């Protein structure tokens, strides 16, 4: 790789060695050292703790300057008051990247906290250290063995997420794992005393491992630079943004969370209009949008074909799709004629929405015979299948065989379809139903079929994907 | 009970005998006879089927007129074309209530179907039979052993639901069962050739077994009579209405579902304003609203106190509450001072939202010590606790013990609180997490604490409950 393709952040995401300053010496073995080790981080780990000689089998140093080897990255897990001196030690040691996990800075609202954060930022500026945080979870990069949670999957993917909230970032990683979607890089950057969302956006725009970028932001410090970074990204890949703190009470909460000023709704509406970035309001919506972008790529229009049992369910689904900006037109006469041949029962709709046969086994048969007919329909662009396992699965019977059969039939049928196909898998709250549905979800998502928890989330995601492709045309 | 307190519908909901016309003689034993029997219907069941002598142990008759005993209620499960003659036979037999399960009438869009429905309605009018349907699931009344699904619970409750969609009614019953909420009476009335939503509303207004009324409607035939029935109900109990088919495509789907004309959005908006009935758009929302009405009765204002770990989660929750019409004010200085004593960690918010300690065990401790403080706060009216089991439970560890302990602690603390308290229990999609969360949900809901799947559904339900009490004041 030519030298000009190497970005300084490559070392942040793939450090060859990490010092954990304030490594936990507790016998229970929680903490950063154990976490990195268990996650399979392949580089060198140097615990720093003046009260221990060895932590988790690693020689432990009293001070970072005592480490006789080069260190790429340091994690600060010490009281806030001690962090400036640790940063100065890192500067002496020549460390390029420091992640300050510790809280108690701007977000505390105290004068002491604010002074400490100013001091950290100043040391960073003067020494050339790039500082992540303070008050953040840091980096999750499964490709290089970095994580901030022992619960995260080791699988690599192509989604990047940059978040001011570690909790919301964690939620997204786990929600995506549930539907077999994985990440290239996740950054929780907290108070953003130095490195911020824009730094990471600029990097991710050219990151070949990343196809989709997500952001959770409370405040942005440099609006014009942020906007130009988003535009740069949008030329190459979609950017999904969850802007938190846009209501009065949300803005107040953001100040005590990350000390951020959140900006006005009007400004942000204009921002979304101009950049084409995809706006979302909850992490579930971010996960759904990412799934839609990944798995309904072939989407070319917003006319949706609905397949699912239950007349009332079809009415409600049509309402929901309309409200989300999608259209539910009638199928062409030819399509209806062909569907009538495989659905001759009285009371079953063969228009749009169309009802498959009774039971989940009957559904499978319909997917194989009916989906190619709907795929050929000239009036619709995308297919949404409602699997109402909650009511048609039955609480009291073993639903797994029938449901799995239906899921496999759908995978087989979907392979040769020209239109994108997505599934709304209703599970309700009954544990038997949920377990069977989870197995079906796994079969479907591993085959690359988008699975949503309901028509609302499916319609919203499909509408956002359509909006993205529509914006990209101009 | 004095005679004037007996309503003719009492026999519809508590028939002493039922004839199943077109009873299934299949050895697999599905069908209405088996369903009623298994559900514990205590009255007489008379199968009618000219091709069988005995079905499920019951003597079977060739024609309903052959039954030598009185029959209160008949279920028609025969081809549409045969239903007029069966209705005439029922008239001869002197049966008062007939449920026509069969489809293939107005909703089919065919001339033959429409003629058949007109004929059924005419026979009903002339004979005095009250007809339920056609094209519907009929009645679920656990108190009298009636059901249209083998999956429904046998427990009685105080919620009534009247629905033009059997599927959506089923979904509601199962969703409510998941949170230990049960029904007095559920009616799926389909095409409403005779009995309609207004007939049932008028009955339920004075039904002592019913405290809350829900409706799923596509179309209403007599607007003024419907409105007056809703107003009559609202004087005594809340009415939650899911009006389907309010979008263009939803309206089209409703015509092919129940042959209903759905009416304009403007008319319905005016209806909701005038009656104070609670509008909902999905069955999940109906279930959430019913839970809110049942379990946050003490609600006196719309200022919400948020409790839950994760700064970003608090920001997002504040946004969601604001958007739902709730306020998230700061706690009083006294409240904050008291919370600071039990939450001294840096980075933890003691304002509103307030963060309990780490882990679910720490949460339990906070509920016992912190909830009484928040309950005494003068600036808030209702408490919402976020249990983010998805991220703080941990995917890889056994969460059940800690989570159950937290749930029991919350039940113990909630008992003595003056403010209503509700829980947003985030589970994500991981099966281990879901199973542990389901156990916690069961503990909490059995203790009468409302449990929602997220802040969005909780805030929406609380806002609707507030709207109901606020309307009732005038």
Distance between the termini of chain A: 34 Å
Total E-strand runs of chain A: 17
What's the helix count of chain A?
17
Q: What is the percentage of strand-forming residues of chain A?
A: 15-25%
Unreliable sequence segments of chain A: none
> What structural class do the secondary elements of chain A suggest?
alpha/beta
The largest beta-sheet of chain A arranges its strands as 8-10-9-11-12-13
Shape of chain A: elongated
Largest interface: A-B, 85 and 85 residues
What's the Cα radius of gyration of chain A?
25 Å
Percentage of residues assigned to helices of chain A: 40-55%
Return the average pLDDT of chain A rounded to an integer.
91
Name the assembly state: homodimer
Largest sheet of chain A: 6 strands, mixed
Task: Sum this structure up briefly.
With 474 residues, the first copy, chain A, is an alpha/beta fold. In chain A, 43% of the residues lie in helices and 16% in strands. Chain A has 17 helices and 17 strands.
